[in-house]
Amino acid sequence: MATGTDLHELLRSLRVWDPELTKLPPLDPATAPDAPPLFTTWFAEAVAAGETEPHVMSLATRDGDPATEGGGLPDVRMVMLHGADEEGWSFATHTTSRKGHQLTTFPYAALAFYWPLLGRQVRLRGPVVPATPAESQADLHAHSTGALAAALTGHQSAPSPP
After folding, report:
1. CB 48 within 8 A of CB 109
2. Taking the mean position of all CA atoms in its chain, how far away is CA 46?
3. How many CB atoms sit inside 10 A of residue 6's CB?
4. Residues 23/48, Cβ–Cβ less than 8 Å
5. Between β-strands 83-85 and 88-90, what pairing exists: parallel, antiparallel or unpaired?
6. Can you spell out the DSSP letters for 110-146?
């Protein structure tokens, strides 16, 4: 490394779930509510605890054609949650982006949220269903002018110009 620091030394120096920073509350799965209400409660607690960007989640998809050599490899990136209810969890992407193509080819994904201050993570996986055109338009226009402009002019997954 440029600083002369060994990665393994840095990793050994880090604490995991430092009790001074992280509370690890007990969870009894037998008494926990169903997924959407529990998620909403935990999300609200993450916001109240001061988690930075608790709405950011990792989205895992599968690339390529699984029938071809090298296809079907996992691909992961960070995206923002747009909603969660009995219908499922929602996020947005351009259909022409890499993840848009991957979800069209193989409409299944996995999501993971991590809230380190609370010592919690939420993992989900299952089928992905595209939003209707009306739902997509409503979601697009629900954002700030800057976010709307970025969504309309951005080129997700495209190399940045030099």
Report:
1. no
2. 15
3. 10
4. no
5. antiparallel
6. EEEEEETTTTEEEEEEEE--PPPHHHHHHHHHTS-HH
Q: Which of 92, 121, 124, 102 is nearest to 111 (CA)?
A: 124
Task: Dig out the tokens for 137 from the structure.
Answer: 């338009």
Give per-residue pLDDT as tens, 18-37: 777 777 777 788 887 777 78
The tens digit of pLDDT for each residue in 66-99 reads 677 767 889 999 999 999 988 899 998 888 889 9
Sheet holding 120-127, edge to edge: 74-80, 56-62, 108-115, 120-127
pTM recorded for the entire structure: 0.77
Cα–Cα distance between 80 and 151 in angstroms, integer?
Answer: 13
The amino acid that residue 127 corresponds to is: P
Local structure of residue 1 (DSSP, 8 states): -
